Amino acid sequence: MAKIKSVEKEKIVAEKLNGRFAMIGFIAAVGAYLTTGQIIPGFV
């Protein structure tokens, strides 16, 4: 049976932070689209 490697606490914290920033970015993109009607405001 293979030994399960333990994940360092720093990696878990980094992944959670990454996920939160991704969610904030997605909400910001949806908000920008809803308010301006453009996917990238000010571009084209």
Automatic annotation (TrEMBL):
Entry keyword set: Membrane, Transmembrane, Transmembrane helix
SUPFAM superfamilies named among the record's database cross-references: Chlorophyll a-b binding protein
Protein's UniProt keywords contain Transmembrane: yes
Record field: transmembrane: 21-40
Name of this protein: Possible high light inducible protein
Primary gene name: hli21
